[in-house]
What does this fold into?
Amino acid sequence: MSKNQTKNNKPNSSMKFTVILTLLVIAALTFLVIYSNNKPDTDQDIAFEHEVSLEGQPILGRNPEAPVTIIEFGDFKCPACKNWGETIFPQLQKDFIEPGDVKFSFVNVLFHGEESAIASTAAEAIYKQNPEQYWDFHEMLYASQPEAENHDEPSVTVEKMVELASSVPSINVEQFQEDLQSDTIKEAVMKDTQLVEDLDIQFTPSIMVNNVMLEDPFDYEKIKSLIEEALKENENGK
Ligand code: CA
It folds into this structure.
């Protein structure tokens, strides 16, 4: 008898378990569907609660009140950053920065050790002395990267930075050399590193459109659609 009871009970408890499991799966799926419908992006883009403060950061764009901000978290020694600067950036500049819809900024990431640190320090020193020359120097740093096949070769030295700075109009090279050693410039680089840590940047370039960090910085269509969405929202909010 007891054997029969056990036999009879088994299917019952296993059926109960299956029902509960099914209900749990349905609940989990429902939650996932609702949750993902509430999010504007269903891919791996990360939306932060707040936009990053651009205080003390270089800004490109003729409209300081531009409704959309794009920040590149980049490393002057990173070949993908150079590539982004040569392929995606020119489109962005033409379509949105020049017309005044977007302002663009750059935050230093030091993933390539001492050379990244030297290049970032040099860029901050140029920015301090003459913010208008910053973007030309920025371009020069990327342009001075060795060809892809030799990209691990050492290419950034203090001497090289002084040489590049000497070719920038209106830059006082002695002042530049002093600034490379100054606490103010070191603090500017540290401020960027703190941001990189706070935002948990994992790769370069990382591109942020307003408060959204893109999963794929090379997806120009995505960048474009986020900008257009933000512009529309801004227009409606007026
Ligand atoms: Ca900076």
In short: The CA atoms of residues 54 and 85 lie 20 Å apart. Residues 2-38 form the longest helix (37 residues). Residues 57, 107-108, 124, 188, 192 surround calcium ion (CB under 6 Å). The beta strands are 46-47, 59-60, 68-74, 102-108, 206-209, 212-213.
